[in-house]
Specification:
The complex is a heterodimer of chains A (114) and B (111). With 114 residues, chain A is mostly beta strands. Chain A has one domain: Immunoglobulin-like (Sandwich). Chain A is built from no helices and eleven strands. In chain A, strands 2, 4, 5, 6, 9, 10 and 11 form a seven-stranded mixed beta sheet that branches. In chain A, β7 and β8 form a beta hairpin. The N and C termini of chain A lie far apart (34 Å). In chain B, a hairpin with a 5-residue loop joins β4 and β5. The N and C termini of chain B lie far apart (41 Å). Chain B has no helices and eleven strands. Chain B is an all-beta fold and 111 residues long. Chain B has one domain: Immunoglobulins (Immunoglobulin-like, Sandwich), CATH 2.60.40. The chains are: A mainly beta (114), B mainly beta (111). At the A-B interface, β5 and β10 of A face β4, β5 and β9 of B.
Chain lengths: 114, 111
């Protein structure tokens, strides 16, 4: 299994508070991704990174920001959490670009915004 | 953007039965992957298969890119095969780096 950890694994927070989720990998892969999984929508890409300090938006990026200061860490921040951001968040990594390579997923973080 | 449809949405099998899951996509693809999400939520990559056929134990997959579909075969199903199976694609017609997921096939294998 690819060495991917996510923290925290579960979090309950209140509307309006900032929240940061962390993804850590030990594979030294260049590409990292954040997805959210919701009933009826499957997995949707939030943001991705193609290198240190190189990030770009996915299809559902509003209300989220990311940072990648080291190869092994990719942070997802909810600037001001809303109830619509209650979801399960998955981090993924790939050694090569998405069009040529396999993605490996972390265990997920279940976030509840009250 | 590219559309990904999976069928059937739900499937119930008796242990030992075989099954075929289908993934249709609306445009040409560079990448197609099959994932299994187990009942504990973990997503596990099964196949990277933009074209051709691959086999791994009781599982095999075939992608016919020219006809825009992929099939996942599960033989001699076991209760541990239960979960949701996702097909995901990346299309050159969409923006780079987007892996688009289908809505999944939920499989329950009964003992």
């Amino acid at each position: 299994d690819a060495g991917i950890t996510q923290s925290p694994r579960h979090k309950v927070t209140e509307t309006g508070t900032p929240v940061t989720l962390r993804c850590h990998q030990t594979e030294n892969h260049r590409y990292m991704y954040w997805y959210r999984q919701d009933p009826g929508h499957g997995l949707r890409l939030i943001h991705y990174s193609y290198g240190v300090k190189d990030t770009d938006k996915g299809e559902v990026s509003d209300g989220y920001s990311v940072s990648r200061s080291k190869t092994e860490d990719f942070l997802l921040t909810l600037e001001s959490a809303t109830s619509s951001q209650t979801s399960v968040y998955f981090c993924a990594i790939s050694e090569l670009a998405v069009w040529t390579d396999t993605q490996y997923f972390g265990p997920g973080t279940r976030l509840t915004v009250l | 953007g590219i559309q990904v449809e999976q069928s059937p949405p739900d499937l119930i099998l008796q242990e030992g039965a075989n099954s075929t899951l289908r993934c249709n996509f609306s445009d040409s693809v560079n990448n197609l992957q099959w994932f299994h999400q187990n009942p504990w939520g973990q997503l596990i990559n099964l196949f990277y298969i933009p074209s051709g056929t691959k086999q791994n134990g009781r599982l095999s997959a075939t992608t016919v890119a020219t006809e825009r579909y992929s099939l996942l075969y599960i033989s001699s199903s076991q209760t541990t095969d239960s979960g949701v199976y996702f097909c995901a694609v990346e299309s050159p017609g969409d923006s780079s780096y987007k892996l688009i997921f289908g809505s999944g096939t939920r499989l329950l294998v009964r003992p």
